[in-house]
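Changelog-adjacent note: as of this version, every example in the card shows the full chain rather than a window. The one below runs 445 residues end to end.
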Amino acid sequence: MAVEINQNLRFGFGKAAAVSFSAAPNHTVTNPEETGISTGGKIALWGDDNRYPQNFVKTLKKNGAGGSSYRFLKAAHYGNGFRIYRHDATDDGKEDKKIIPLHAEEKIAKFFKARKMHRVFTEIISDLENFNLGFPEFILTNDYKEIDSVRRLQTAKMRYEKINPKTGLIENAYFCHNWTRNTNVDSDYVSKIPVVDSYCSAEEIKEYCKSRKIHKFTMPIFYPLVDEIYYPEPDHHSVYLNGWMDVVNAIPEYKKHFSENQLNIKYMVYISDEYFTKTYAGEWEKYSLDKKNQIRKQLADAIDDHLAGNKNAGKSIQATVFKDREGKWVKGIEVVPLKDENTSEGKGLLDSSAGNSEIMSAIGTDPNLMGVGIPGGKLNGGSGSDKREAFSILNALFKTKRETTLEMWRVLRDYNGWPEDLEGDFAATELTTLDKNPTGTQSVM
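Full-length structure tokens:
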């Protein structure tokens, strides 16, 4: 948790939650509607409006560089999937991992198949990469002897209860589909879930749950905190908080309006008064001022319609040319393209490139891996060797992240009494050259 365990408590859990359970406990599911009644200060708000995760996701969904970067990291984190192995050593004393096929451990294989653990891992990884925080929910058997099931509670839909000042602990969390600042946590639309400290051993968890008659709980897992109390403040969210995502997201709208209204910023149109006197001959002087203005407006609108928009690209415009009283040729209508770099069609592309680079750098994806190259450098994404080296570095940095995800596996293994010498890990994908492997990839542990 985000607070230290009270040393006066044996297990570090705090008081039991006031939750009743049926004979066959179910995973947390609530009605997605919202009542909108005051929380009474029970929960720690996540953001001023208690919708920080929702606001972040809304902005992220509009951002291609951010969305693809997170998608890439989630896939790299999971790699080639979860594997179990035993530590061994070679004759020369080097560490050797002996991969154990899942089907060789019948109980584990049965649990993983029945509970779709591959899906649980990918879902938890998604939350960890987005928010640095995941909420696996564990369901116990009626006799408390084993964990019967584990699922993911979506991080964006979870909120912590405020710290109990008597114990210094966060004792519960709440699940709701539609949080607001005034959500009533005691309503039927919100589910209360006991929180178990991730530093507790399997035996401590088992004894605690049995003594408190708790059949389901969540054990939050998170990347190391800095000075936060409740929710992580990921450093990769900096580009959301400082506005880079908003800048990049605004460029497509600007480009769209630019394309639809090119005339307003691309041309200067000159219309000579002689055009009207020559076109309407002697009748022009007889027209009222209102009629003259109406004719001028109709002509201006016709020119606008003719020149503006993508569908009119490349069209020409015809206008009368005549001699004035001095015998000089005069253009009745003249269209002059404006040469203004500030309103050119390419405006925003450099900002977009710089913004995408900032976003990918903050999230932690090398632009080479995303195929966009370095702004100011080559237009392509670099050579194959550049990508292999970048991907190898990324995989090496995932070790600490995977250790956090594997906390779920260790709780399952120890609580259910699976062989304690079995370790788990995610097989990393290693890029190779085609002369070493026809597929260009291989799995490593």
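Structural remarks: The chain has two domains: 52-232+385-444, 263-343.
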